[in-house]
Design goal:
Blueprint lengths: L14 E3 L3 H17 L5 E7 H10 L1 H9 L4 E6 L12 E8 L2 E12 L2 E4 L16 H10 L4 H8 L3 H21 L14 H10 L3 H21 L3 E3 L9 H13 L3 H21 L4 H4 L5 H15 L4 H13 L17 H22 L7 H14 L11 H8 L2
Parallel strand pairs: 2-3
Antiparallel strand pairs: 1-7, 2-4, 4-5, 5-6
The site of iron/sulfur cluster has 13 residues, from α14.
Length: 407
């Protein structure tokens, strides 16, 4: 495990527009950084490499960059065939800035997942360390010594984070409500029909309580993910592509049990610290480690948050987070057409249901585990690095390839 200090959980929860944290929010933030650092540049050229070049059109990377630069002219070049070994990260951008025709800036910036960026040769932009503990095991040990809950550990280290989490929860609710009302097809040309409203109606009217639960959780996950796919406002959790999992389970719990907002904020804190442990020791980027790093991480976060809401302890939280991730291992990233729609939207619903199952299982099996959460995080990262690049957000393999080749 790395010995870097962990940054704020606000890096896990960013409020912005979809459909992809690494392909729209990250490039947009990188463009803004260039404008701030080089205010004299009157023209930019941005070259996209790796996953950004292969799926950036479907994800809207060019639009995110152009919108950020606004009136400043910006040329975008696509370089999908560059040797991945020559790149510092699968999501690399080269920004060249010009002032009166002369090149005055030449910087490579990586979009490292969840909307975070890193300038080549520099520390992560948000790497000011807040948390001394960087593994779940060391955090749990700290909490045990001070008889502290996991959410209290977050509030102890980040006294001001509750305000951000309230804004996060407000946006998550708003995204779901908007998504449940919307109808029609999603943009991008795949003609994917919005299904959140159908699922909600079917679930609401269902007399079978088990089915009702499954359909409503799915409806909430679809609502967030469909909003994301249509460039609506959402919250990364930990990414845009996986933005449906955590809000779905929290919203369902709120509708059913009406916990007060402080309980939801505590659950978000638990989800956030789980996400940060994954991000610090492995990755939350589909381009780096496949969908197990996105939806798998979201599953762990949601499972831990559910345990917190149910008043379960540290061992249940760890067990649920571990279970949720363990059964996402090997999950590939193969978005059809480079859009965050197929398989992404369904996958969020399945992820939310898996998080529910993991939290429930943890109530019984938490006390006899053989695998730690930290171990499964490392396993996810090792597995991700072993995945062929065609399964890491390049749309060159899996469903993306089959769909394209279908007669
Ligand atoms: S397959 Fe998973 S990781 Fe890939 S774009 Fe879709 S949600 Fe993101």
């Amino acid at each position: 495990m790395t010995d870097a200090r962990m940054s704020s959980i606000s890096d896990i929860f960013r409020i912005g527009r979809g459909p992809s944290s690494s392909h729209t929010i990250g490039p947009g933030r990188a463009s803004l950084l260039m404008m701030e650092r080089y205010p004299d540049c009157d023209r930019f050229r941005v070259t996209l490499y790796g996953s950004l070049a292969k799926t950036g059109r479907g994800h809207g990377t060019d639009r995110a960059i152009a919108e950020t630069f606004g009136d400043i002219p910006c040329e975008i070049l696509w370089e999908p065939d560059t040797d991945p070994g020559s790149l510092p990260h699968p999501n690399t951008m080269r920004f060249e800035g010009f002032t009166s025709g002369e090149k005055t800036a030449d910087v490579r910036i990586m979009s490292i997942g969840g909307g975070a960026i890193q300038v080549e040769g520099e520390e992560r932009e948000e790497s000011s360390g807040i948390y001394s503990e960087t593994t779940f095991g060391s955090i749990a040990e700290f909490c045990r010594q001070d008889s502290m809950s996991l959410s209290d550990y977050v509030f102890y280290n980040e006294p001001g984070i509750k305000e951000h989490l309230r804004a996060v929860w407000a946006q998550m609710r708003s995204t779901i409500i908007h998504g449940l009302e919307a109808e029609g097809t999603l943009p991008g040309g795949l003609e994917v029909k919005r299904r959140a409203k159908d699922l909600y109606i079917y679930g609401s009217r269902n007399r079978d309580l088990v089915k009702k639960e499954r359909f409503l959780i799915s409806a909430y996950a679809y609502a967030s993910s469909e909003e994301n796919a249509s460039t609506g406002m959402m919250v990364t959790a930990p990414t845009c592509g996986a933005c449906g999992v955590l809000p779905a389970v929290l919203y369902y719990e709120q509708q059913l049990f009406a916990p007060d907002e402080e309980q939801i904020i505590s659950a978000l804190a638990v989800a956030g610290i789980i996400g940060q442990v994954i991000r610090t020791n492995a990755s939350v980027s589909g381009a780096q480690a496949g969908c197990q790093a996105e939806v798998g991480s979201a599953c762990s976060m949601a499972a831990g948050a559910l345990c917190s809401l149910r008043g379960l302890g540290m061992e249940n939280i760890e067990c649920a987070a571990e279970l949720a991730m363990e059964h996402c291992l090997g999950l590939t990233c193969d978005p059809v057409g480079g859009l965050v729609q197929i398989p992404c939207i369904e996958r969020n619903a399945v992820g939310a249901l898996r998080a529910y199952d993991a939290a429930s299982l943890s109530e019984v099996i938490f006390d006899n585990r053989k695998v730690s959460f930290d171990d499964v995080v490392l396993t996810m990262y090792e597995t991700g690095k072993d995945l062929s690049s065609i399964y890491r957000e390049t749309s060159e393999g899996g469903l993306a390839r089959l769909y394209v080749n279908k007669p």
